[in-house]
Every structure is written in C-alpha cells, then in structure tokens.
Design the sequence.
C-alpha cells in the first residue's frame, strides 16, 4: 500500500478533550505514504462514512488508517465503509486513541504526543497491508438447544417453526424445567402447568424436533456453522418404545416411599423407578441407579417387583449409556438456575428446623401434584400454619453471599401471599420482611397493590436471625417505617433465597468455551446490545443461565436467541474472518508444534505433504502458533513480524 | 514438651483466678509447658470507647513482647484475643500504621514483628491437642449431663477477621464437651451476649442480659453452663445472684469454665481447679458424680 | 449549597464525616456509604431491646453528616460491642466500629466520660491494667487473694515509667 488516507476522530469530546486531533491529522499528512489526512467529529456517523468514501475516490487511496475508539466498537463498520468505497476491507487499520490514549491520560500535551506515535505505528503497519479475501465454510442447517425448560422449549419451537431441524438435549428425564415445579405464575396467576404443557407437547410432536431427554452434552468441537457435539444418552433401564407411562412399576417398587424426591425438593419420597410429574414429556419411566436395589447390588429381594408389574415388559437392566454425535450449525444454551443453599446461612434456621423452607419448597407444597397434594402444612407436624412469615433477600444483595438481586423474589412472594390466602383462609397471619419491593414489570405494580389490599403485614426491615426452639419460631425484625422492633411469633418461615448458576456450570462452560461473569452466570457479549450472544461465535444464551430473570424475560430472550441462531442457519455459507494464521510451505519443517499449541483445534499436520495446515473456519487468529513456530513458517495475515517491528520502531 | 506463653489480660489474673488455675492444672497433662513471660499489660479493648489508637498500641505492645519470646501465645480471654488479632491484621497489612506504632513501642524498646501464632483455649484444645488426645485422658467422666455452651461474642465474631470458632454455627465447645462425656444441646439463645462490655456504663442492663440468658438456660433444663471467657464467667457465675435479682428470677445454674470441666473429667482435684471460687451452685453438677460412678 | 436538618437546624458536617470514614478505612473497615438501610443490624442488636440503640440509624446519620447530634448523645454509649451488626451486615458496614469512633470523638472533644471509664483509664495508665489484683470470695464465704491460690506473680510492664510515658502519649491521638 502506498496511498493511505488518515482519519482522526474527535469522538465528540471523548478524544478531542485530551488529544489535539487537528494537530495529529496535520502531523499525519506529512508522513511518508500518506496522501491525505483529516479530522472529523464523529467518524462512525453517516457523514464520517461519506467522508471516507469520497476521500478514497478523490485521492485514489488504496488504504485507510482511522485513529478513533477501540476497534471493538466500529472496526466492522469501517471495513464495510471501505469496501463500499471500493478498496479491500482489510486495508483498513484502526488505532485506538481513545481507550488507550485520551481516556487513560490527563496531560493533553503528552496524550497528543502519544496519539502521534500511535498513528505513526498504524501507518507503518498499513503500508505493509495486503488485500485479503474471506474464505467460506458451509453451514449445517441444524440447531442444538441445550436445556429443556421454558427457555429451551421456546427457542427450539421458534427454530423448528423456522424450518430447521432442532436437537433438544435435556439432563432430566423430562422437559419442563423450573416452570414444571411452579404452581402459578405472577402476575397473571396462570396455572404454570396449564401454559407449559401445551408447549411441551408441541416440542414432542414437532416433526423438526429431535428430543433427547435424560441426556447430557459431553463435548463440543468445531466452529460456528459446523459444530460436532457428543451427547451421552443415559440409560433409563426402561425401553422407551415399550413403556406406556402407566406408573405401575413405581407403585410396586420395593423402594416405594423411601427415596428422596428431588423434583419435590426432597419434601416427599418416591420409588427408585419414577416419572417426575404426571405431565412429564416424554411420559416414560426412569430407574434411578443410585437407589435401585437391582442396579446397586445386583439383586432386589428374590425378584424385582417392577419387572413383575410391567405389562409391556419394558424394564431392561442391561441397558447402557449411548453416546451419539450431532452435527449442528448453531447452539442455544438454556440450562437454567439453582437456588442458593439456605443452609449456608445458619442464622436463618433452615438447617435447624423443617418449618423453615424456601419459596420453591412452598411452591411444591402449594402444587396439587406436590408431596402434600396441595395442602400447605408445616413439614414438622403436617398441620396448617396459623402464621406464615416470608423473609426476602435471603442471601441476595449481600456482599457475604450473592451480591446480586434475584429479580424474582419480591414477585414470587407476593404471588405466594395471594395463593396462601386462598389455601389457608383470611384468618392466617401473613408477614413479609422486605428491604425493597421490586415490582418492575408490566402488571407487577398492579399486583403489588392487590396484595397490599390483602391484609398482609409488611415489615420494612431484614431480620438478623430466625430463632427456632421447642416453643416455636420467633423472628425479631426492626420496621423502619414505624421505627419499632417487632417480635414475630410464627409457624412457618419461607425464605426467598438468591438465584445462583446451575451446579456444573463451571465444567459446562469449559466444554463450550463460554466465559462467565463475576456472579458465575454465563457471560453475554454485551449486556445492552448483545444480551444473547456469547464470545463464542454461534453459541447463544437463553433464560436464567445468563442471569436471574422471570418467565416473560426468559421467553423473550429465548425467542431472541433463536433468531440469532437463525441468522447463521439461514445461510448456506459463512464467510470467515481472514485475519488468521497461514503457513509458508517453504519454511515449514513439519514439526507439529503448532498443532499442539492450538487451543481451537485449528491446526493439522498433513501426513502426505508433511506441512502444517490451517482450518480457516476454526482459526481465530489468536497468534499462539505464530509465537510457537520455530521456523517462522506460521504467519499472521496482515499482522506479520515485519509489520510489528516497523510499529515498534515508530513508537520507540 | 511443647512450650507456650500465656497472655493473661486484665480479668483473669486479677479476679477470675479459677480460669488461670484450671488452665495451669490441665495443660501440663497434655505435655504443654507454660512459660512465664513478664511485661504484659492490658490489651486495651475495654478502653476502645475512649481511644482506638490506645487499644491498637497496647495490643501491638503485647504482641511485640510475645514476638520476643518466640513462642505460640495462648490468650484465654476472647476480648484480648479479638484485640490482638485485630492489631495483628492491621499491622500485617498496613506498613504506614506499623511504622507509626513501632515508633511508639520503641520507647520501651519493643518492635512488632508479627511472628507469633495466636490461640484461644477452645482452638488449642480442639485443633491443636485434638479430641482423641482429650478422650484418652478422661478417667473420671461426670456422666450424662446436658451442658449449655456459652461462646460469648468476641471469640466468634467478626468472622471476616478470622476467628477460631465459626460465627453462626459454632460446634467446637460441644465437641470438646462430648469428648468429656457430656451432652450439649442446641438452644435458641446460644449466641446471645452476656452483657459484660456495658458494665462500666449501664451495669443494670448488663445484669439484665446476664439474667435473661441464665433464665433461659435454666428453663430449658440444662444441668449447667460452660464458659470460655473471664468476662462472661464473671457475669454468669460471680454475678449470678445479682443477675437473678435484676430480672426477678431465682437462678441456680451451675457455671464452670470449660477448663474446669476438662480438669474434673481428667480426675484432677477440684481444689486445684479453683472450684471453691465458683459462686454458682456447681456442687449440684458434681455431687451426682461422687454419688454415681465416681 | 447546604443540606439542613429542619428539626435541629444542623447542617451536614461533611468534613467530620470524611474524617470518620478515613478512620474506618485505616482500621480496614467498610465505609458507611454502602449501607442501604435494611436495618438487619438493628433487628439483631443486643442493646436495642433494653437501651433502644438503633445501629442503622447511626449509619444513616453518619451518611447525612449529622455527627454532632451523635457525639453529644448518650445513645452512643449503649453499644454492647457484641459485633453482631458487623457480622450480619450485607454490605460489610460496622456500626459497632462507627460507634467506637464517635465515642472517641466525644472524649476528645472534652465531653465527660460516662461511667467507670475514667477509673479504668487511670488504673491502666498507672499500673497497666484496668484493675489490680482483687480479693475474692469463695462459695463458702472465705476470702482469698491471688497468692493464697498458689498462682505466680502477675505479669506486669517491666518499666512502669516508660510504659506510662508511651500510654500517655497515645491516649488522645486519633487513628
């Protein structure tokens, strides 16, 4: 390149405040290889784009240097502008004089001097640019949705309706997720199962959806457009083609009433063989290897009772896990959340008393399909409580536990008040200890008002401890609205615990290469503008796995994620970023070091030619192989060692 | 023989003699020799309301004396343990403060070095000596008794500072008592304060707190209460009668130092454990032993 | 620009507030700014039921800069230093330590030191301890002294003069 144009951006006052942009532009116009240089208020604007295109035409530029904000902001835009202007989009060099200059320094003189240096280096690099072409890779028109809760269900239905084949992998024996554990949803008080099961049935019946329940993702290889995913289908020990879901085996099982029922949050018991809930999809039995006597010890009495009870003869103890391989173009992650273990806060009494429960446990008590068939009773004595006290923010907004707001606690508890009034009547005392009531959504404030009218005692204060003893449960709470300390003598305490990432998230993130934010939830590419994208091209997030949210926001995000996935799947080919590694065949000695250091499995040693090769779809241009190559055969396009040396010369 | 130094504070050596006697009587049985160290003064914690700088300086001073000895330091009083632990934390991380304090200590030719490990009697018994070693030495268990544990405040809080015992669900004293053959049930008032720090300003309130907790312990049917702090013990034992008068209750709760209970279970004579100095009805707890297995 | 409390006509004392926050920082405590008034501290305060101390209110007044109101009050002397507020606060604020600082300010400003503190200070400055060896009574009513119980002599500051000098020097110094 030898006809460069330099454009120095003011970025309003963001850069111009600290850097004399006019002076930098003037300085640049005198550099060798620079045909013209100018400054402008907002290079990223429409006018800025016009400025570049006109300059290209007028001065017959073959390359462009833009001194502006971080390339992470507008590199893509500027490349597009250059291409429209008629030059190769990879003859564009961006130098960051905002985040790395004007925003980092106070001294105007020194910042301007630094900006000059940065522009010199950028020009030096740009002069050695080569025009690059994007390679293309084919796209597999199939999607993978990991997680079968409402987020996964929504995303998979959207994608399936778009015409793509969708594989849904769900860890539990049935889809439905957390919504299946709820009784009613706020603020409409819809019956959760009633609005969920039709969607679950749609998933089961959709011709485009391949449902893999009781399965887990073991590995993900490849890149956007072409992922290879290994999924382990865990053995149910039940032949799903024969099983009719009649549940006779569960009733006959020798372990009936002895196994902690995880779906009911261990408030109830089940058998070793089970169907999680009546509307399970698929409606097939599963035998739990941790509690089944046959699977643990090889014998069950003198014969397994389930086999005897099963008419279609579907029980098969010889079944084994099966690993299948899927090939998909895009992945949506919808793995959901867990609740913070309330036992981590001993002062709240959760471990000490069975009558201190969580909101989710209350939800199961309220549910007709729950362990008490919908009777809200104290776990200790099975009697209806005459007083129920809710403690919000149990472990939330807490620097010593979870620093974030759980987002749904306030509304869940308000909903519970409504349901408890129905179940327990008007005489039951209901108390809520809150710090702030966050009723932010559509219809939420109206619902809060309704509950304020329902004879509920609101205490604005957080209790320090929950005292449990033979004489009952006592909570002292200071109410800042009346400036009085109240002693609450209650019979059932419901804690609203913090929402935390699902157990196993760390390992799962590693498998997919996902980043996590400080709170442990999966990291979105940008909280405002890219809330479903991740930093891994082709993998999108839906629902609470990205952060606590309610059902409305989950469904919105799920549809959004499906749309994002669709953008990839709708293409036959994807263009690959050409700013990647390449191998000089003359220099390569075939040592294979690059294959070892590549974290993206993008390198292969061709056994026939003895020369290393780069998979252009997988290579991300991280540079590891370039640093590792002992014979200088591994090079980076438009980021060569010569360019780097020239840049350093200019700065130093 | 493992050697340790003991930092006695103010309360133990000037009035809570039974605590000191029972520590001196029991530790040698675990091959621990107490090395006498002269020069200690108050840790400053009771005077924190007057001057936090004074507290910090006095605590650092005592730590400097301990550093000179080069021995582990047993601090039987939780208030002192908190003061010294806090001083250690600040001086170990804030160089400026460290220099400032050391310039004051130089008047007595002392320098804070930060090399001493600090123990309270609970973690010395539970973590260092160990429950197995304790069980081995139990020759005269008192039999099945339900003893309420009183940890007090300063040995369990604030957890962030690093305390020898858990702040919300402490179990070490229960484990030690268990090794001695006792039961120790949970009770809701377990973590309540004895009230001692308010003695200088609001003595009646102090005694009310003391009386309220003793009343609860009594009503719940405990056979006695175990303490590990000279201030708490002063309130619950020496001032039990007064506390009872303050809250209008007839209190007769046997209150003993955990080291006294340890000594008794090891067959050490009560006289050597300062048992005569307990003003609460401790004979009620021990008599049955003499009538029982012995 | 000012912020005035119309009940007392007191203005916010932002410098004093900064001073207190600085002292807290130097003692490695969280500053009061992060408090969101959940009142968990007061809900569990050991001194609240009997003496009406409201730790969350102390923090709120500190945030508003209404320092004199607190320094001149009796309420700050009711803290039991049980540290439950510090332990349970979801924002790691320590009302107990704020109260120590306020009490220090009260003493430094020449206010009368309440209760027994004067005697304790005097004793510490002379012999190095808040009290000297006491005679105690046994359960049977006998009187015993430390030496009667076969306990060795108490550990005391080696050079009382030097000790006194260094204590006097620091007693009124601020953190």
Sequence:
């Amino acid at each position: 390149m030898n006809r460069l144009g330099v454009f120095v951006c003011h970025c309003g006052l963001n850069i111009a405040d600290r850097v004399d942009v006019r002076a930098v532009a003037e300085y640049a116009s005198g550099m060798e290889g620079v045909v013209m240089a100018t400054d402008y208020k907002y290079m990223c604007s429409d006018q800025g784009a016009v400025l570049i295109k006109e300059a290209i035409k007028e001065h017959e530029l073959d390359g462009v240097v833009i001194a502006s904000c971080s390339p992470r902001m507008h590199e893509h835009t500027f490349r597009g502008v250059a291409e429209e202007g008629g030059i190769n989009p990879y003859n564009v060099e961006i130098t960051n004089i905002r985040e790395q200059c004007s925003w980092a320094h106070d001294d105007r003189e020194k910042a301007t001097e630094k900006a000059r240096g940065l522009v010199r280096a950028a020009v030096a690099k740009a002069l050695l640019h080569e025009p690059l072409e994007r390679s293309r890779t084919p796209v597999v028109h199939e999607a993978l949705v990991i997680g079968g809760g409402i987020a996964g269900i929504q995303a998979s239905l959207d994608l399936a309706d778009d015409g793509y084949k969708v594989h849904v992998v769900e860890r539990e024996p049935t889809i439905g997720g957390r919504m299946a554990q709820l009784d009613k949803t706020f603020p409409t008080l819809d019956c959760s199962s009633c609005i969920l099961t039709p969607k679950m049935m749609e998933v089961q019946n959709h011709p485009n959806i391949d449902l893999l329940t009781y399965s887990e993702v073991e590995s993900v290889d490849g890149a956007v457009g072409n992922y290879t995913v290994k999924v382990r289908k865990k053995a149910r020990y039940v032949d799903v083609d024969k099983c009719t879901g009649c549940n006779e085996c569960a009733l006959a099982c020798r372990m009936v009433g002895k196994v902690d029922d995880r779906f009911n949050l261990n408030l109830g018991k089940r058998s070793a063989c089970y169907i999680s809930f009546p509307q399970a999809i698929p409606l097939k039995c599963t035998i739990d290897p941790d509690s089944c006597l046959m699977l643990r010890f090889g014998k069950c009495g003198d014969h397994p009772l389930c086999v005897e009870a099963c008419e279609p003869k579907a029980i098969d103890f010889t079944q084994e896990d099966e690993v299948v391989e899927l090939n998909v173009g895009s992945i949506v992650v919808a793995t959901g959340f867990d609740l913070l273990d309330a036992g981590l806060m001993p002062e709240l009494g959760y471990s000490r008393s069975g009558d201190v429960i969580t909101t989710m446990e209350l939800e199961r008590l309220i549910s007709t399909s729950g362990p008490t068939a919908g009777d809200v009773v104290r776990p200790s004595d099975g009697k209806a409580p005459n007083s129920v006290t809710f403690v919000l923010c149990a472990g939330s907004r807490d620097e010593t536990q979870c620093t974030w707001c759980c987002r749904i606690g306030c509304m869940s508890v308000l909903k519970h008040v409504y349901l408890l009034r129905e179940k327990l009547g008007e005489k039951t005392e209901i108390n809520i200890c809150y710090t702030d009531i966050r009723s932010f959504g559509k219809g939420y404030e109206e619902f809060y008002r309704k509950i304020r009218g329902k004879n509920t005692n609101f205490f604005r204060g957080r209790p320090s401890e929950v005292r449990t003893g033979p004489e009952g449960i006592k909570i002292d709470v200071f109410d800042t609205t009346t400036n009085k300390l109240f002693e609450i003598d209650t019979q059932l305490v419901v804690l609203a615990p913090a929402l935390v990432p699902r157990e196993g998230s760390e390992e799962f993130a590693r498998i997919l290469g996902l980043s996590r934010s400080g709170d442990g939830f999966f990291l979105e590419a940008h909280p405002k503008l890219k809330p479903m994208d991740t930093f891994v091209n082709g993998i999108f997030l839906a629902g609470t796995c990205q952060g606590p949210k309610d059902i409305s926001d989950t469904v919105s995000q799920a549809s959004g994620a499906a749309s994002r996935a669709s953008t990839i799947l709708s293409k036959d080919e994807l263009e690959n970023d050409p700013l990647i590694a390449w191998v000089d065949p003359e220099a390569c000695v075939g040592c294979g070091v690059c294959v070892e250091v590549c974290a993206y499995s993008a390198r292969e040693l061709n056994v026939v030619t003895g020369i290393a090769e780069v998979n252009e779809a997988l290579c991300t241009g991280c540079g590891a192989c370039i640093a590792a190559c002992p014979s200088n055969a591994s090079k980076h396009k438009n980021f060569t060692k010569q360019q780097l040396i020239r840049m350093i010369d200019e700065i130093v | 023989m493992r050697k340790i130094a003991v930092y006695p504070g103010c309360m133990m050596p000037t009035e809570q003699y039974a605590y000191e006697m029972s520590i001196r009587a029991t530790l040698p049985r675990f091959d621990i020799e107490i090395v006498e160290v002269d020069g200690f003064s108050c840790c400053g914690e009771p005077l924190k309301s007057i001057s936090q700088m004074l507290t910090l300086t006095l605590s650092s001073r005592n730590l400097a004396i301990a550093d000179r000895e080069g021995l582990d330091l047993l601090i039987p009083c939780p208030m002192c343990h908190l003061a010294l632990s806090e001083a250690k934390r600040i001086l170990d991380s804030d160089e400026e403060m460290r220099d400032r304090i050391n310039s004051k200590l130089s008047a007595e030719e002392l320098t804070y070095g930060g090399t001493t490990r600090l123990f309270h009697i609970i973690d010395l018994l539970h973590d260092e000596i160990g429950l197995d070693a304790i069980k081995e030495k139990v020759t005269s268990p008192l039999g099945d008794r339900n003893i309420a544990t009183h940890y007090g405040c300063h040995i369990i809080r604030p957890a962030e500072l690093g305390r020898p015992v858990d702040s919300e669900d402490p179990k070490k004293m229960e484990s030690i008592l268990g090794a001695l053959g006792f039961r120790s049930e949970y009770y809701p008032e377990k973590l309540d304060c004895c009230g001692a720090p308010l003695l200088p300003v609001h003595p009646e309130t102090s005694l009310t707190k003391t009386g309220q907790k003793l009343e609860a312990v009594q009503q719940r049917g405990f056979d006695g209460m175990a303490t590990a702090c000279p201030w708490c013990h002063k309130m619950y034992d020496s001032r039990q009668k007064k506390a009872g008068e303050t809250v209008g209750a007839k209190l007769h709760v046997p209150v003993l130092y955990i080291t006294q209970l340890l000594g008794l279970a090891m067959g050490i004579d009560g006289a050597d454990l300062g048992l005569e100095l307990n003003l609460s009805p401790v004979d009620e707890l021990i008599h049955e032993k003499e009538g029982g297995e012995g | 620009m000012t912020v005035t409390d119309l009940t007392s006509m007191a203005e916010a004392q932002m410098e004093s507030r900064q001073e207190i926050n600085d002292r807290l920082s130097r003692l490695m405590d969280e500053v009061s700014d992060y408090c969101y008034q959940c009142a968990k501290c007061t809900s569990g305060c050991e001194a609240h039921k009997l003496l009406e101390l409201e730790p969350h209110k102390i923090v709120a007044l500190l945030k508003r800069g209404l320092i004199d109101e607190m320094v001149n009050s009796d309420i700050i002397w009711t803290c039991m230093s049980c540290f439950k507020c510090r332990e349970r606060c979801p924002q790691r604020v320590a009302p107990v330590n704020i109260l120590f600082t306020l009490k220090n300010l009260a003493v430094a400003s020449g206010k009368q030191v309440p209760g027994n503190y004067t005697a304790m200070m005097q004793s510490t400055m002379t012999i190095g301890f808040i009290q000297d060896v006491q005679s105690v009574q046994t359960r049977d009513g006998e009187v015993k002294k430390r030496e009667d119980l076969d306990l060795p002599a108490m550990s005391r500051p080696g050079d009382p003069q030097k000790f006194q000098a260094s204590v006097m020097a620091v007693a009124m110094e601020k953190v």
About this structure: The interface with chain A takes residues 168-169, 186-188, 191 of chain B (CB under 8 Å).
